[in-house]
Amino acid sequence: MKTHFSLNALFLTSVLAVFTFACGEPAPTENIVEVASGNENVSTLVEALGAAELASALEGEGPFTVFAPTNAAFEALPEDVLEALLKPENKDALTAILRYHVAASKLTATEIKEALSMATEGYTVETLNGAALIATLEGDAVKLADVQGNTANVTGADLMASNGVIHTIDAVLLPGGVNPAALLGPADIVGVAMDNEQFATLVAAVKAAGLVETLQGEGPFTVFAPVDDAFAALPEGTVESLLEAENKDQLSGILTYHVVADKVDAATLTNAIQNAEEGTYTITTVNGAELTASIQDGKVVLTDAQGNTATVIATDVNASNGIIHAIDAVVMP
């Protein structure tokens, strides 16, 4: 028979534990937030509690058990996720995550292990978030699992406070419905292109030309991005030749002819063409040479310095540092 234990089943044990300090050790006088603030290993958590406006709640009567991710745990989140979580617009997501690390009862390491010794499949920790954590024992170590399948090890136990206890853990746990990476918004120009299978040749060319760092810069940029079929339509051997190291300057010149040092969405470009004399609008590229934009059969068409044309076939692919419009041909300076 499989046995599950809930924190509620340990309530009496927790109440009795209150009297342990009468047997020698003085009761702690600092609350959860004060104890955490005095521990440099969880300073990021303290900052997050402030951003989520949860500090006052954890200064309350309690009791609470806080499974506190260390600074290293927060640093292990995907790049830029922590910075995004601390922004005011993402307060709800941060609050949900932090409340998922708090139980509304005091549970010491000994109590956790005693409960686990009586369970065959761990026990459920009900959190302030409303979602549950599952605690298990691996050897002598307590491990927590969230609803998304992530796990965290308890690395420091029984940091006692006047209104509860803190256990440090080595990972940030996530409740259902929270995807921190989704808070980041779109990637940069290069990242967006890499995620689109239609731009594989373009990405290879950008790398060969040494333009990755440039197009990952602050920008903003508008890139008229030839799809793979556009490169395939060039004379046989052209792409292979351009990708060779000795032709790097030539390749760079071609690619920068597809880039504008500004963010120009489809509506702005269309309006510029319609308001221009003779229905053509001149675009100055990073290359220094110009493209001529016009509207033909309801679509934007680019004409290069050699008279070749490319039709815009997809618009407004947003990136963090600009925008991409896909075109069906490679234009030449």
TrEMBL record:
SUPFAM superfamilies: FAS1 domain. It comes from the Bacteria. This is FAS1 domain-containing protein. Keywords: Signal. The keyword tRNA-binding does not apply. Residues 29-173, 186-331 form the FAS1 domain. Gene3D superfamilies: FAS1 domain.
